[in-house]
Design goal:
alpha/beta, globular, 8-stranded mixed β-sheet, about 270 residues, Rossmann fold, disordered C terminus, binds D-malate, single chain
Length: about 270
């Protein structure tokens, strides 16, 4: 069921499907909640899947200017309040959703039962990368979302997926093209100034599952393996036949890994593997 939830300064569209322990899914950039459809179809049979469009994306309202990762994380806290979810949640974030997850873990630690980090980074942008993002933000506002499609789509998925699933590629393209230019620009500016999360990985106490597509060129397996090593209670899984959008490209092993992780975290007994 699609809900419209008012939070301070925005109205978020959110799918709230299933019953049981809540999983909060946080999409990547510049996508929307539909990127999680393969996880929701499976996991909503046993869990409550809360799947928002972030501020500025999908059908949520847009905040022009800049939206920081801190702001996105606080939006998620407000969303949980509005949905009256008081028990702790497992947050599953992909890429930008992972950048937001680091902030959620810092600012709302008591609300977290576990973290699932898909194809993301803990390091900040280099100064060149940050400058590119700021340029991209200005270009998107003046030229439209085609600019970001051109810059990002070729890198998002593994080459084999492009051949295997041309309709999916077209769908991803359409999601990006439908995204509001000011929403894209605001998140780009926020990502450009995001903090270095590496110094606080060792302080994240909840269990974590770290997943990466074996052909991810944006957040490569070697870098994600370092994140997993720095987290005190983590499990690391490389997903075959997948790039940066591993949950969408190869959902079956992703869903299996998530189910195994959730089975362990509900008893809070997970330790380093
Ligand atoms: C994403 O998938 O969210 C993006 O790759 C994040 C980024 O541009 O750093």
């Amino acid at each position: 069921m699609l809900k419209r939830i008012d939070i301070p300064g925005a109205t978020l569209s959110v799918n709230d499907i299933g019953q049981g322990s809540p999983i909060l899914f946080v999409h990547g950039f510049p996508l929307d909640r539909t990127m999680w459809r393969e996880q929701v179809a499976d996991l909503s049979r046993d869990f409550r899947c809360v799947v928002p469009d972030l501020r500025g994306f999908g059908q949520s309202t847009v905040t022009a200017g800049k939206v920081t990762m801190e702001r996105f994380a606080d939006d998620l806290g407000e969303l949980l309040d509005a949905l009256q979810i008081t028990e702790s949640v497992v947050l599953c974030g992909l890429s930008m959703g992972g950048y937001i997850a680091w902030q959620f873990a810092r600012r709302h630690a008591a609300r977290l039962r576990g973290l699932i980090l898909c194809d993301t980074r803990a390091a900040p942008d280099s100064s060149d990368a940050a400058a590119n993002r700021l340029r991209l933000a200005d270009d998107v506002v003046s030229l439209g979302p085609e600019v970001v499609v051109k810059a990002m789509l070729p890198k998002l998925v593994a080459p084999g997926f492009k051949v295997r699933e041309p309709l999916w590629i077209e769908e991803i393209r359409q999601v990006m093209l439908a995204t509001n230019s000011h929403g894209i620009a605001a998140a780009s500016r926020g990502m450009a100034e995001r903090a270095d999360a590496r110094p606080w990985l060792a302080t994240i106490e909840c269990p974590a599952l770290v997943l990466v597509g074996e052909q991810d060129v944006i957040s490569p397996p070697a870098e994600m393996s370092e994140i997993a090593s720095a987290l005190p209670r983590s499990t690391f899984r490389v997903i075959p036949d997948a790039g940066h959008l591993a949950p969408l490209e190869n959902p079956q092993p992703v869903n299996e890994a998530i189910r195994t992780f959730l089975a362990a975290t509900s008893f809070s007994t997970t330790t380093n593997e």
